[in-house]
Amino acid sequence: MAGSHQERHFAERIGWLRAAVLGANDGIVSTASLLTGVAAANAARSDILISGLAGLVAGAMSMAAGEYVSVSSQSDTEQADLAREKKELETDPEFELEELAGIYIERGLTVELATEVAKQLTAHDALGAHARDELGLTEIHTARPVQAALSSALTFAVGAALPLVVAWFSPEKSIISLVTVSSLAFLALLGGLAAKAGGSGILRGTLRVTIWGALAMAATALVGYLFGAVV
Description:
This protein is mostly helical.
């Protein structure tokens, strides 16, 4: 071979991209909604900023805890499946070989070729072959609780800081309008960047994030106007 050719696929980014987009999106939407809701209730400027800061801290911790627990549960399930598969390979290797060959036959290989492939992969790494082809577990999709928790917490804090900074420098009478407009712009940018990183349509990703963010902020502001307090 003249040289090696390594391809990088969008699927390799699934683990961190999902947590990062979720965290940043939630940070912008929840904090902007909180700020507009409190401002719509005719609260003092200091109360608006304090509630936004509290929302940032609480939200970041909540995202970290939620992602860690959720992804840890996924990881536990994966480990349990691998442990069971390892035991089955030890107690009934012939059946597991036939099972692996059957998977390749269903994918289009001939019986002879599927059996040979199954034998060679079993000899090389039996558990790895079953994890990948029977359970659908690969390095790309392996659950990483700590990575997901840190990504979500950090990106939530960054996302939440954006509308909070806008509110900090905005005149009190313009907080609602400036926070709303700037947050929608941030969401549009986030949607476009996430779509590009994931290899999907930029316009679709931008609209999807922006529309849902606008609905969340509108609903919270309405609550503030109607009840004079954040619920």
